Amino acid sequence: MTNTQALRKGMFDSRLSCIRKLRVGDKVPYWGGIKSLFAPVVGFLPALDDSSRGNYGIMDQVAALHWVQENIAEFGGNPRNVTVFGHGTGAAFVNLLMLSPLARGLFQRGVLQSGSALSPWAIARDALTYTKQVAAHLKCPTKDSAALITCLGKRPIEDILNAPLRIPDHLIAFGPTIDGVVIPGEPADLMEKQTELFSQYDMLIGVSRIEYYSKFTSQEDKMGIEEDRRDRLLRTLVRNLYNYHLQEIFLTVVNEYTDWSKPDQHPINILDATADAMGDALVVAPLIRTGNYHSKLHKSSQKGTFMYVFMYQTEESYYAQRMGCIHGEDVPYIFGAPLVNSLSHFHRNFSRSEGSLSEAVMTYWTNFAKYG
């Protein structure tokens, strides 16, 4: 039985563990994740004219990678063997770093967990409009870019963050923008046609069993949803993601995610199918497309493309057992939360077998970081 098969069956070999006790003076691997320290409107205010530049949040991440290059050897790390990983929006950032000339040579591998640059929420397509909405709400000029920036700079950060915005579901107001410099072009084009940067990296991608869950109420989780609720969710998705043939796309999605072998559609089945459709559209399909682009580069590159599906549902989870694991369920296992039971962000009691799973998952991640 392979380690992957053992993982899926819930069987783990303690020999897989790479965890050891550390003593003062020991050299340790640097296991760091890049976090966005800014609210989107602050870290990703778009370029308003030729005198300004957007994508500051990504440039901060590039600066952090430069710091790693300059200092990681002092912590026992290897600047020529750096892996960057992220979850959700963080995964989209990792993907964008793999496509940015500013990050060239700063890392060698990327892990994209439940997100990619091809997800519809990864790129801010109308950030300038939302910037002007924020400015208008704060009574700042909207036509003079320099005056707008100066005015916003004088406003309390709380007022900026609390400015009301009407953002379509599944899209973002502020975030990475295609500026021709930090992000030189459309992510799909950079992956498919201008492959020089994308082909430099080993890549691991993965998803959880259910990637769309948060929009359902606890009552819906237990009882399911009716067809009219499903239709509203799917029509909103189609309307916000596509410009043409909306009715045809909607009907195609409903047809594809309906089990026609059952004459009567139970509300639970409707909910589960809707969750699959939403998760596939927003996370899974874009991520698989990203993986396909990368795997096609193997003929010209020695780099590898790997994929996982995280299926395990934590015993003390707060949602229905039939769902399997949901978006984010893999994160505590990657950070070793079941091994310590004291990471404040994860308020759960993990079982001993879940500690073994965490050891296995951490080993998979560290092995990828070491060897690709």
From TrEMBL:
Entry keywords, A to Z: Glycoprotein
InterPro entries reported in the protein's UniProt record: AB_hydrolase_fold (IPR029058), CarbesteraseB (IPR002018), Neuroligin/BSAL (IPR051093)
Keyword Nucleotide-binding: no
Lineage of the species this protein comes from: Eukaryota, Metazoa, Ecdysozoa, Arthropoda, Chelicerata
Domain Carboxylesterase type B: 41-372
PANTHER family: NEUROLIGIN (PTHR43903)
Family that this chain belongs to: Belongs to the type-B carboxylesterase/lipase family.
UniProt name for this protein: Neuroligin-2
Pfam hit, one: COesterase
